[in-house]
Amino acid sequence: MPDKRYWLFKSEPSAYSFDDLMNEPDGWAEWDGVRNYQARNLMRDDMKVGDGILFYHSNAKPMSVVGIASVVREGYDDSHGLDPKDDHYDPKATKENPIWSMVDIKGERALGRPVTLDEIKLNPKLKDMLLIRKGMRLSIQPVTKEEFDEVIAMGGDSAN
DNA sequence: GCCAACGTTGGC
DNA sequence: GCCAACGTTGGC
Fold first, then answer.
1. CATH number corresponding to A6-154
2. Is the CB of residue A89 inside 7 Å of nucleic acid strand B?
């Protein structure tokens, strides 16, 4: 996979945690409900099957990267926006133009230990991560292979 | 719980 | 097309 890319997905563990992903009965989950155009474009246009994902817990104690996941289905229509009863309903979405996209992801493995936001901020190799840029709220962010590998190394995972 | 930063909406 | 108001995110 010559052009494998790497991403960071944020999730509030009170809403959906890495354990929830690992415990999915089917082994994978729809990453639905993203309602931000920039994040949508990344999912719709740039993600490929096999891409690596750092799974980050926001609004958590501690805030940290807790596990590794991967893309198992490339961007497709997020039909949840069409359902008025769905939490992620968007009144502007139509069958002809659902507006939003999602990917499917699979939990790979937990890190040996969580890598906290504080540690990421202190690591000079990770100083350019979007995650620690002031005001950066994007829930899906690209990361470089070097950053991806560094976080895994910090988490004490030797699997790759 | 607070609030800064940011995206979106809507009046003009 | 500008921009103030508003809602949300997410660290603190």
1. 3.10.590.10
2. no
Instruction: Report the distance separating Cα A104 and Cα A74, nearest Å.
Output: 7
What is the tens place of the pLDDT at every residue in A13-33?
A: 999 999 999 999 999 999 999
Cβ neighbours of A105 (radius 10 Å)? 23
pTM for the model stands at 0.93
Closest CA to A107 of A4, A12, A25: A25
For residue range A106-152, what is the model confidence (pLDDT) as tens digits?
Answer: 999 999 999 999 999 999 999 999 999 988 899 999 999 999 999 99
User: CA(A4)–C1'(B2) in Å?
Assistant: 40
Closest nucleotide relative to residue A58's CA, C1' based: C10
Does the nearest atom of strand B lie within 7 Å of A134's Cβ?
A: yes
The reply to whether A37 Cβ lies less than 7 angstroms from strand B is yes
